[in-house]
Amino acid sequence: MKTTAFLLLLAALFAPLAAGAAQLSDGEIPVATVAVPVGATPETSADPNIDRAFILPTAMTQPSGSATYNNYELLLHGFTYGVTDRIQTTVTVLAPIVRDMPFVGIAAAKWQFLSTPRFHLALQASAGLGVSFTNANDASGYTVGAGAFATVCLREDCSSIASASATYQLAFAGSGGDGQVLIYGASIVHSVSSHVKLLAELTSLATRDVAGTGFDAAPGALASYGLRLHNANIASDIGFVKPVGSDNTFLLGLPFVSVSYRWQ
Questions:
Q1: What distances in angstroms separate CA 33 from CA 11, 19, 30, 45, 158, one per listed residue?
Q2: Span 122-133, mean pLDDT?
Q3: DSSP 3-state of 21
Q4: Residue 131: helix, strand or coil by DSSP?
Q5: Chain centroid to CA 191: how far?
Q6: SS3 state at 35
Q7: Is the CB of residue 80 less than 8 Å from the CB of residue 110?
Q8: Which of 61, 77, 78, 177 is deepest in the core (most CB within 10 A)?
């Protein structure tokens, strides 16, 4: 990717000289043709948060060789590496900054197995660890899961997308409280300029015990909305997360901020 970028830079620098030489030789103004490298779509490289909407993941992946740091509410720290243009790995950690705060870590790998100009499908596998530090007694639990994501590009450059996702998590608690969680939802990311996007997302879940016969849907959902400010390296999502179907004293919802930085 660095070699391709260097060649494109050289082409951009020497194109005016070549055009001037051609015009002097035959008296005609040449038509310049710019080659676009095969691989990630232009919008994938232009938005460091292309692999997710507000909170939910999309079927999009980070460009090959890129490394992205994500920070959510100053508490969650994430790191994503683009193995290829269709495979990425992510590690997210909730660091215990106070004594009674639990440690939570999740590792995930996403594979975009279907990619067309306007439609993308991806699968994700994940594993997590949680440790609670209370009363000098450590309690730990583990999770394993899998997810499926679909994304439709609303524009040819995929600057605006609509996505749906479903993720299944199986949790094992040391105290015997094993259970299952199904998280599902949909999102829209709409570009209004080259550096601003509007975000809207609806998320809900269902749970059940391992020995249960069916999932119990949560009494409500989370509606998230806001905007994304970004360039090719830095992105910030600013908005609100509001519970729907339950009492909530926050009229607009709970404020939410995330910041990302991507190295390419």
A1: 10, 11, 9, 21, 23
A2: 92
A3: helix
A4: strand
A5: 16
A6: coil
A7: no
A8: 61
Q: For tokens 């404020």, what's the residue?
A: 255
pLDDT tens by residue, 37-82? 344 556 677 999 999 999 999 999 999 999 999 999 888 999 999 9
DSSP string, 193-218: SSSEEEEEEEEEEEEEETT-SS-EE-
Q: How far apart are CA 165 and CA 152, in angstroms?
A: 12
For the stretch 17-40, pLDDT in tens is: 333 433 333 444 444 433 333 445
In whole numbers, what is the pLDDT of the chain averaged over residues? Answer: 83
Which DSSP symbol is given to 231? Answer: -
Helix (H, G, I), strand (E, B) or coil at 24: helix
Length of the chain counted residue by residue:
264
Structure tokens at 264: 């390419």
Between 40-44, 68-72, 194-198, 242-246, the lowest mean confidence (pLDDT) is in 40-44
Count of CA atoms in the C-beta half-sphere (13 A) of 168: 8
Strand-strand pairing, 254-263 and 67-72: antiparallel
